[in-house]
From TrEMBL:
InterPro entries: Asp/hSer_DH_NAD-bd, Asp_DH, L-Asp_DH, NAD(P)-bd_dom_sf
GO BP: NAD+ biosynthetic process
UniProt-recorded name of the protein: Aspartate dehydrogenase domain-containing protein
Gene3D superfamilies, A to Z: Dihydrodipicolinate Reductase, domain 2, NAD(P)-binding Rossmann-like Domain
Similarity remark: Belongs to the L-aspartate dehydrogenase family.
Length: 260
């Protein structure tokens, strides 16, 4: 039996609580959130996260905000394993290095979901043997599905005025994009972690705002290896305009947790 605490009582948190309660191998013993919930009295506020409350938990699942990992990641790893649902926070190399070293010292697992990233295991294997030469992850969503920081916010506002034409909001390293779109590109951060030989600086991110994406989020993954080796996958993830996360990503997330 894995004793689990969930941090974040939003869309993903509520989904995971409902599904994990059906699993005989998991027991949800704590739910933490920024605010209390009128509908669920089990939800406690973040100020009650401390070593003594963490001591009887095996795994903390963060599905709230990248800031939670900055604020509580070390304390959690000193006491239990950590599943990071907002891995865009790991683009901060100082945080990444610190969590890795605390995890090693206390012999804890640090896990990230593959999210909407297709082929993570294959890419991980190529990275480990050094045959992964380039990885490009392109995400294409409806303009209303983005939550962005400046200057991408302003670019996307202009993209909203277009009826047909897609706008490239960003092309560059995953590291550069994560702080500008922390809620939208967890999938790319997962890719940068799988592609361990390239990392956040070496994996290329392309973010496209497209008014034609009224039914899907599209994630394209182009992996390149030696002698012209290439794999290109296109994942069409059903999602209505305004949805930050595609429906099937919720189930992918659940499988990643069950897979531990
Ligand atoms: N890895 C993936 O594939 C993937 C997929 C979907 C969502 N996510 C990430 O998971 C997290 C939750 O997603 P969601 O769709 O459930 O979001 P949501 O907005 O529905 O819920 C977030 C919850 O966390 C709380 N919260 C928000 N900011 C907080 C903060 N700074 N400190 C403390 N609590 C805070 C909110 O009160 C809310 O209850 C987000 O960071 C999102 O980017 C990752």
């Amino acid at each position: 039996m894995v004793r689990v605490a969930i941090i974040g009582y939003g869309h993903l948190g509520k989904f995971l609580i409902e599904k994990l309660r059906l699993e005989p191998d998991f027991e949800i013993v704590k739910i933490w959130n920024r605010t209390k919930s009128e509908e669920n009295e089990e939800v406690q506020t973040l100020d009650t996260i401390n070593a003594s409350n963490l001591s009887n938990i095996d795994l903390v699942i963060e599905v709230a905000h990248p800031k939670i990992i900055h604020d509580y990641g070390q304390l959690i790893l000193e006491n239990c394993d950590l599943f990071i649902g907002s891995p865009t926070c790991l683009a901060d190399q100082k945080l990444f290095d610190n969590l890795k070293s605390v995890g090693t010292k206390f012999n804890r697992k640090i896990l990230v979901p593959s999210g909407a990233f297709w082929g993570a295991n294959d890419i991980q294997k190529m990275a480990e043997v050094g045959t992964l030469k380039n990885l490009t992850v392109t995400m294409i969503k409806h303009p209303s599905s983005f939550k962005l920081g400046s200057p991408l916010f302003e670019k996307n506002e202009e993209a909203k005025l277009k009826k047909e034409e897609a706008t490239v909001l960003y092309e560059g390293s995953v590291r550069g994009l994560c702080p500008l779109a922390p809620n939208n590109v967890n999938t790319m951060a997962g890719g940068a972690i799988a592609a361990s030989n390239l990392g956040f600086d070496g994996v290329t991110a392309k973010l496209i705002s497209d008014p034609k994406m009224t039914d899907w989020h599209v994630v394209e993954v182009l992996a390149e290896g030696p002698d012209g080796f290439q794999v290109l996958t296109t994942r069409k993830n059903p999602a209505k305009p305004g949805a930050v996360t595609g429906q099937l990503t919720y189930f992918s997330f659940l499988s990643s947790i069950k897979g531990i």
